[in-house]
Amino acid sequence: MDALKPRDPAHIGTYALLARLGAGGMGMVYLGRSPGGRLVALKVIKEEITDHPEALARFRREAETVRAVRSAYTANLIDASLAAPPYWLATEYVSGPTLSRAVADRGPFPPDTCRKLFAALAEGLASVHAYGVTHRDLKPQNVILAPQGPQLIDFGIARAAADTALTAPGTAPGTPGFTAPEVLLRNEVGDPADVFALGATIAYAATGRAPFGSGPMDAVSYRAVHEAIDVAGVEPELAALILACAAKDPAARPTPAEVIVRCAVTSALVEDPYYQALATGLTEPPPHDLPTATAAGLIPPNHPTPPYHPTPPYPPTPAPRSRRRTPWLVTIAVAAVVGVTAAVVVRGLPGGGGAGASGSPPTGKPSGGTSAATPTGSGGAAQPPRYIENNRVSRDYWTLSKDPATASHGIGECHTIGGEGNLPAEFQTAVENADDQGLPYVTKKAKIVMRMKNAEAKDTRPGPYYVSVGVKPPHEIDPDTGKPFVDLTMENKSVGYTSKPVDIYSKWKSGEFIELTYPDDFASHFGGKADNAIPVANDPGDWTVVFYHVKGSPTDYASIACSGFRVK
């Protein structure tokens, strides 16, 4: 739980805001208090992506799913605003750490606790499946360990069981390492895929390790399709059940009911001493009103007092679908936090492995911003925009070579798919340490250069052809801290911090390189607002450099080339 920022609103709808509960790529979650004193978790979509049709569709689908699924294993929806910005939904609040945080703080769970958690989560899946809904993104970050028992959260990509169509051709829902092979390979989404994710989640709880290792998304997904799940050191009977749930053939996996039988638990998870210590010991008690939150330092000085604005209640819950309900229910409530979803394409690796794919710009109206752009010709805009909008998903990424001989020179491999495919001939780029060119890695600043080789020998100046350079840290960055999100580390799929578009033929006669320095010449733009680029030291690892062909507006651009550098 974190303090509100001065820019945070004092209230959302009728709810006074008391603190921040979490953040993610979609938006922010606040602790709120109703006029009658009820605590809620308020999930608010980011202002800068409210014009993104896919993001809005996912948010509305989450609200409808949570409203329809009235389960002891999900937080009930209390209120929502889905007609106009700001878009938000309010669910029941109960404190508790995520499974991801619990393992990170305390290490792997004891085998007996794992079996009880296995059975409880299987019971939760059975309850959700009874409504005809598949979760599609079960993972440690989406399990809350509440004092009353575990909760399943983030239904942002959940779908009805009969609806197996995906949001975009060639992409798969879920998170690498927890997404089932049939989803990655054939887009087959169903209850068995949730069971696969359940096995992977318990493997993580039992080992403290990623179930199919770490690394680029496509590499992790390749291992999920072709290699066995990691159960090294796990008690044999527990390991056997995990392996059964993670079977490559969905027909070979047990049902949630069969998982419960095989767990053979004799006491409730909430009675387990290890679980009790996690559920109560890793979460601070929430404030119950404005004076308490102010005294705890969660509300900034001079923050406005929230007014009371009554709103009509959310529409009543529809009757459940006619699937048979399971009898294993207990009463639980929990806070909903912003979840993270990675879309994965499986192609390009031996035997059907995967690689990330660059996203397309949104089909709705642009995020905003102004430019001096004029209509574009074959070579691009006659005058470029002053910046490009960070308003789409980009899955281009760079990794340092695994060959020590080439890695020692800072050489790596770039994975870029989905660009426009018309990279001009003789386009050259290079990336190096701006302070010491002899080092194969970057410590403070990176120098990025580009030019058209042999352009000076040509008689007629081509173009113009405008290029903006995007520099991406390895992970999504919290705008409040300038560092990766705490307890929610995720791969960076943004466009990155970008440079002002420049005509790559501007030095065509001299043959000189166009030079840029990161972070000095870079910023991130959302809705016409700029955020400064972060220092490289904020996120050590493999950084990606993407070259974007800029056309007629801040949202009209496409990737044409990729590079990168290692930060130490």
Description:
This protein is of the alpha+beta class. Among the domains are: 99-277, Transferase(Phosphotransferase) domain 1 (Transferase(Phosphotransferase), domain 1, Orthogonal Bundle), CATH 1.10.510; 361-567, no CATH class. The protein is 20% helix and 23% strand. It contains 11 helices and 28 strands. A 6-stranded antiparallel sheet has the order 1-2-3-4-6-5. Strands 19, 22, 23, 27 and 28 form a 5-stranded antiparallel sheet that branches. α5 runs antiparallel to α7. The protein starts with 10 loop residues before the first strand and ends with a strand. 49% of the residues are buried. Residues 156-172 and 308-381 have low confidence and may be disordered.
Q: What sort of overall outline do the alpha carbons produce when their principal axes are compared? A: globular
Instruction: Kindly report the spatial arrangement of strands forming the biggest sheet.
Output: 1-2-3-4-6-5
Number of helices: 11
Distance between the termini: 30 Å
Arithmetic mean pLDDT: 77
Determine the structural class based on helices, strands and strand pairing.
alpha+beta
Quaternary state, please? single chain
Which regions are unreliable across 5 or more consecutive residues at pLDDT < 50?
A: 156-172, 308-381
Sheet with the most strands?
A: 6 strands, antiparallel
Helix content class:
10-25%
Number of strands: 28
* Residue fraction in strands: 15-25%
From the alpha-carbon coordinates, what is the Rg to the nearest angstrom? 25 Å
